[in-house]
Amino acid sequence: MPVEPLLPPPAPVAEQDYRTLRSLVARGGVTVLSGAGMSTASGIPDYRGPDGSRRVQPMQYAEFLASAENRRRYWARSYVGWSRFRAAGPNEAHHAVAALQRSGHVEELITQNVDGLHQAAGSTGVIELHGNLTDIVCLTCEERFDRAVVHRWIAEANPGFTAESDQIRPDGDIVLAAQDFADFRLVRCVTCGSDLLKPDVVFFGGSVAKPLVERAYAAVESADSLLVLGSSLQVMSGLRFVKRAHALGIPVALVTRWPTRGDEWATLRIDALLQDVLPRLAADCAAETVPSS
C-alpha cells in the first residue's frame, strides 16, 4: 500500500532568508547533506521530535549481534515493514535536489538516509553515508545479496506470516509486539550457513567505513557551500561535516523543520518544510548560469 506523508506543521519562509539561500546556491559548488526529514513527505518518518528527542528506539548493532532472538525480532519487523517501505517514492524535495544537480548548482550529494529515494529521483553519485536497505550482507563471510532475494527466502521460510502495524520506522522496519515474532524463522546465508544476515546499513552503535567518511569529507572540503537538508544533526555522523565546513570558512545553510544541533555553526538557518523551499529554489536556479571557476 502507498505510504502516507508524515509531516510536521509548516512554517512561513522569511523572504530575506530565501533570497540569501538562492544567492548562495546560485553560485554553484554546493555540497548537499540530507537527513531523515528529506523523506518525511514520502511517508517515511524521521527519528526525532521537535526537541531533538528520539521518537523510536532503533536496533543497536551490538544488540543485533548479541542473539538470534534479537535478530528474529529485527527481521520479523523488517520483513513486514519492507513491503510498505519500498512503496515509498521520491517527493518534491528529492526531485528538486536532482534538478539542482542537473543544472550544475549541486556538485556533491551526501545522504544519511538508507531509502535510495535520491537516486530514484534522478540524483547521481550519491554518497550513502549509512548504506542502503536494498543490499544485504552476511557478517560472517561478507557475501552480498539483493534485498528482493532475501525477502523471498523469508517469505518461503515463514508462509502465512502477517502482522498489522501502521508504525513504520525510518530504517524500514515496523513496531510489532513480542508475540508477533515468537515463531518467526530466520534465514541463513547460502554460502556459509550463518544467520548473521543484515541490511548493509549502519545500525546505531556501528561505524561508517573510513573510506566513505573520507570521501564525504572531501566533498565538503571542496565545496563553495554546504547545504544541510532535513537533518537534526543530533549524531556526529552528520554534524562533523558541518563543523568541518565551519572550520574551513565554508558557508553552511540549514533548511529543516525544528532546531538542530548544528545551528551555532550555520551561516543561514531556515526553519521550514523542504517542499516549501526546494522546488522554488530549483526553479529559480534553473534560470541562473553557474559562474565558471
Notable characteristics:
293 residues; alpha/beta; 6-stranded parallel beta sheet; 3-stranded antiparallel beta sheet; 9 helices; elongated
| Main sheet attributes: strand count, strand direction, barrel closure | 6 strands, parallel
**Range of helix content:** 25-40%
Strand percentage, roughly? 5-15%
What's the overall average pLDDT, rounded?
90
Provide structural commentary.
The protein is of the alpha/beta class and 293 residues long. Helix content is 32%, strand content 14%. The protein has a six-stranded parallel β-sheet, sandwiched between helices. It has a three-stranded antiparallel β-sheet with strand order 5-4-6. α4 packs parallel to α9 (278-286). The N and C termini lie far apart (47 Å).
List the helices and strands and how they pair.
Blueprint: H1 15-26, E1 30-34, H2 61-66, H3 68-85, H4 92-102, E2 106-111, H5 117-120, E3 127-128, E4 131-138, E5 144-146, H6 147-157, E6 197-201, H7 210-221, E7 225-229, H8 236-247, E8 252-255, E9 268-270, H9 278-286
Parallel strand pairs: 1-2, 1-7, 2-3, 7-8, 8-9
Antiparallel strand pairs: 4-5, 4-6
Helix pairs in contact: 4-9
Task: Give the gist of this structure.
Helix 4 (92-102) packs parallel to helix 9 (278-286). By secondary structure, the protein is of the alpha/beta class.
